[in-house]
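Protein modeling request. Please complete all fields; requests missing the sequence field cannot be processed.
Requester role: graduate student
Desired output: 3D structure, token encoding
Chains: 1
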Amino acid sequence: MNPPVKTPGTTRALPNLIFASRWLQLPLYIGLIAAQAIYVFHFWVELVHLIEAAFGSEVALHKLVESIGYKSDVEITGLNETVIMLVVLALIDVVMISNLLIMVIVGGYETFVSRMNLQDHPDQPEWLSHVNASVLKVKLATAIIGISSIHLLKTFINAGNYSEKVLMWQTLIHVVFLLSAMAIAATDRIMHPVADTPDH
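Delivered output (200 residues):
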């Protein structure tokens, strides 16, 4: 058996530098954590406005109506079912985007930067134990479909304030997202076929 060939130090320096360059992504993930904090702040601002409007604050009510882009032929003097539903959907939208950020931050760091070694941590996400680039792509595509669904539902509830062209394009874009996710999942299934389990 031939002994392994030793690579000169100068030759190994370049691969080591290239491999170490993955840490350049760290500021990007820290930036996403900052964006996550902004989303948390925005969520609580909207929630406080909703609570204040429920107790009769007209200032909070007008801020909510302005933030959701709701328009009505009659003056809005208090919370109604449509306004509440649009605000709640906006809060759900923030939560789903926050979940998307978590998947990108945690999954991306684990996949492309460094292992987190969370095997014994009681709060380790179930999906993190088998995450890779393919799994991450499918999960991100699914999350984007969920976010698109919330936006589409908000548009349909407030359809009177949108033109038919906007409604048509939003529906078409959602369908494209759905087909894209199906294509990604199918491609991943073809490239990584699941072994058939023997019948017992």
